[in-house]
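Recall that a protein's primary structure is simply its ordered list of amino acids. Everything else, from secondary elements to tertiary packing, is in principle encoded there. The following example makes that idea concrete.
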Amino acid sequence: MQPKNKTAKGFLGGVSILTASALVVKVIGLLYRIPMLSYLGTEGMGYFNTAYELYALFCVIATAGLPVAMSVLISASESRATNGGEVRRIFRVSLGAFVILGASGMLLLYGFSDALAAMFKNSGASAGMRMISPTVLLICLSSAFRGYFQGKRSMTPTAISQVIEALGKLILGLTFAAMAKRRGCDLPETAAYAVLGLTVGTAISVLYLWVQKILLDRRQPSSCLPRNRSADADTLIRLLATALPVTLGAAVMSVTKVVDLALILRRLQSIGMSESTANALYGCYSTLVLPLFHMLPTLTTSVALPTVPALSAAMGARSQEGTAEAKNIVLSALRLTLLIAIPAAIGLSVFSEDVLMLLFGSQPEAVRMATPWLACIAWSVPMSCLITVSGAILQGAGHAARPVISLVCGTAVKAVLAYILLGLPSVGMLGVPVSTLICDAVIVIVNVVFMTHLLPEILPSANDFLKCMAFPTLAGGGAVALVWLLRRGLGWQKITPMHTLGTVLAVMCLYGAAALWSEHRRRHMG
């Protein structure tokens, strides 16, 4: 007989592995951007980030839904204790779909690079788009293997492959950019060489995942079902039916980044700004602000990925015990998310200048511009994290189309607000983080309405949700306030790296001690 909390334990184990991996990846990403900013400057980073965001959109369209659909189908097949032949069929059909989508995305990005760069009024980004286009196919292959491992509740290969990609981007990207700079290449060409590091790193990641699958299959031998066109077609239909709503939802989230890209570049030029100046502002925002803002929501993906198959398996039990297990998974996901997101938002907003000076102190003018943008968008961190988790809850419970509706609503609000605010001289670039804040709030509200109506039996009570919010708000706010008062008392006026590191460590220690005390008290009372 299986332990009662086996699903929840497996879920938390997957969360731990992916969270550690995501944290390492984000730290590597920040380490990458610091020297890259000195190589390229804000203008060159504008070319780099334009190519990267369009690549990311193609990747989301091609890969966001299929790995989730694979994990759901494979997890369901594993729970039925089949001989493994069905799992192999799911992987084979999925891999074929991935190859077709990846090859199509690669050819589109390469063939229409000049047209896309012209559409966004950033002609210097076309070389980077061509250089990064093979990565679309490679990331599709990588996602096929990741979906297979996630369906088998094995998160370690996914975690390691993500670190390999990040290290490839860091080491090879900086190496290629340095080589291009020594050869005297111009900024657009140097940015294109920097992008090449991601392509090579992803290729190494695919090779690692392929080897890991071979090793896993040898440890878990299973019979292979004969090829059957009807069965393959049925598998493909089930796969696409599950993947399409997830893909649309994730694509809309990625579209919000492209909305920023298009509006910042086009709207600023429409009010009289030159292409190079608008590109430099976009480069500053996308290099200094967005990586720090996206760090926490990216970590939340580590909660969302295991949530979908775990919740799908629990809901599939169709029993009172399965419903209780599903409710426990939802509560754990929300508690873990808010435990990190709320104090991070408070600290990042209050100490935004400190963090930016620590990371990008060699670019004081860029830090000066980016500080108010980061202080504003930091308050969107909890909502952005809740978007990911609430979407995963709806997907895992079989309502994958609902997050698409909420994301469309939020994106529409963002596009209108960003267009209006960017055109106001008194607001300018601050309108971008403000529109993101309101967009994320709209999405969360709509998702909560859907969950209230569709999933009342597994949704935590209002009292439970307030408890999840109360501790991180009070403890996180208290820790930040105490450190801020201490700094004032010590007379730390000028920001130095030591002051910033001391501030971050003090806040983390205070909050960590409070969290450990609260967890001990919760278990004792439980």
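Residues 120 and 262 are 5 Å apart (CA to CA). The chain has two domains: 6-460, 462-526.
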